[in-house]
Amino acid sequence: MLTSPVILVFSRDHELIAELPAALQGKAEIRACDSSDELLDLSRTLRPQAVLADLRRTAGNLGLETEALESVRARYPLTKFAVLTPDDCPLGLLNWTNIAGVTRVKGPWDRQALLHAVRDLVQPEPPPNIPTTDSQSSTVLAGISRRFETFSPQLRQMLADLEVAARHDVTILLIGETGAGKTYLSRLIHEVSPRRHEPFITVACGALPSELIESELFGHVKGAFTSAHADKDGKFLAARRGTMLLDEIDALGPEQQVKLLRVIETGEFEPVGSNHTQHSQARLVVASNLDLQPLVEQARFRPDLYYRLNMLKFTIPPLRQRKVDIVPLAQKFIRQFAQKHQIRIDDVDSQLLDTLVNYPWPGNVRELEHVIQRAVIYCRDGQLKAAHLPSHILTGTAGPANDPTVVLPSQTSSLKPLERSLGGQIALTEREIIEQTLFKNSFSRTKTAKELSISRVTLYNKMKRYGLSR
Questions:
Q1: Which residue blocks in 219-266 are alpha helix, DSSP H?
Q2: pLDDT in tens, 93-148
Q3: Which residues contact 240 (CB under 8 A, 6 or more apart)?
Q4: Contact between 292 and 250 (Cβ < 8 Å)
């Protein structure tokens, strides 16, 4: 026996709830609730096809309500979401709707706009035909505005341990190559912690001159140094009771390491040029793309700080060591960028996914994200193919990893026989030059041909040859 799809409606507007069944003409069953707890309870007992959340009246609990919605979204990742927001939408809610990819209806209840959104929920457009890997369970850590999903057994255990640590007032150390997801995980730690509604502040220690790091962290008083024209609070005070990420912790000098250890142990510090002791209430997450133990052995990092940080150390494996996550991440980025750039993707060639899996990704998840964005931008006929990938991805010609101890697969061995020839490599270079010039000129063939000093006919023939035709 067929049953109607269920739409879970979260709203305190009882008139809205009363009008929805008639508006849907019996095409869906409405299950309504008006509290976050009831929303979570209902989501455990039924699998909604769609969720409609009315956040115009939040009763001061917007953070808790978006957290509950994100929990439902993490439980049912294929469920469609629509959110009603006020005209003056809070920034946090706006960011969540953008990141979560939900339909947003703004302002006072516009009947037509709302009905259109609800009908889309009941009759969603068919998703792109994206080949998938073998079905297997994943582990998800979900926050207010982001989620981390993995199929890797190694990462699944790490996520479980990280979630436990995130809920306690402890300093966490994240080690991983550039682009592996340290900043993303740091924000997620903040969002699943009791401090989620306080500020999250990032300090890139390696990007600051050594003489300014202490002022940036601890603040300074007027006259402490030449350019100190007024008192300034540092990041520890700005973070209040929130979370502070100290990225590239290995860039701190010995004196700064001593002061940081003191803050971790006691919460105490003095602004530069001041004798007045202040107290930090922030929670620390520290990160590095280098293992700290060799730095201790080289006398570049204090042993006492190292052992203090190493108590809760989490190592994020590079993407090439968790290949099982490459295809799910690619699928996510394809959907994300197709929506962002308003580009229709009807089908994804399995050869594209095979190519992604076989590439060693020295830039990790960040590199994969940029490659997928570029491929989606170049897709013009709804068919996302391997030909839309950069030539170095097609040939497996990876650049250097940021960890000098990493040995990537041989570039030469990854080349196809045709591509090892001089003519094959010249063709790959020519293709890359043409597609970059096309992109630069917004795919204007006239401007591209002029810049390359070739005729439009020659350009057209080369575009056809290399699969760049629109």
A1: 235-238, 254-266
A2: 776 676 666 777 775 555 566 666 666 666 644 555 656 554 456 788 887 778 88
A3: 198, 199, 281, 282
A4: yes
d(CA 220, CA 234): 7
Of 279, 185, 184, whose CA–CA distance to 236 is shortest?
Answer: 279
% residues pLDDT > 90 (the chain): 28
Q: Distance from CA of residue 67 to its chain's centroid?
A: 17
Q: Report residue 84 as tokens.
A: 């009603």
Backbone angles phi, psi at 226, to 5 degrees: -55, -45
**What's the CA gap between 22 and 421, in Å, rounded?**
68
Residue 159: name the closest of 179, 184, 136, 135 by CA. 184
Q: Tell me the mean pLDDT in the region 14-38.
A: 80
Distances (CA, A) of 8 to 40, 46, 104, 124: 11, 9, 16, 16
**The domain 140-315 belongs to what CATH superfamily?**
P-loop containing nucleotide triphosphate hydrolases (3.40.50.300)
pTM (global) more than 0.70: no
Q: Is 38 exposed, middle or buried (0-12, 13-18, 19+ CB in 10 A)?
A: middle
**AA identity, residue 140:** V
**What distance lies between CA 447 and its chain's CA centroid?**
35
Q: Where are the domains of the chain?
A: 6-122, 140-315, 323-403+413-465
Q: What angle do CA 141, 147, 152 make, to 5 degrees?
A: 60
Assigned CATH topology for domain 323-403+413-465: Helicase, Ruva Protein; domain 3 (1.10.8)
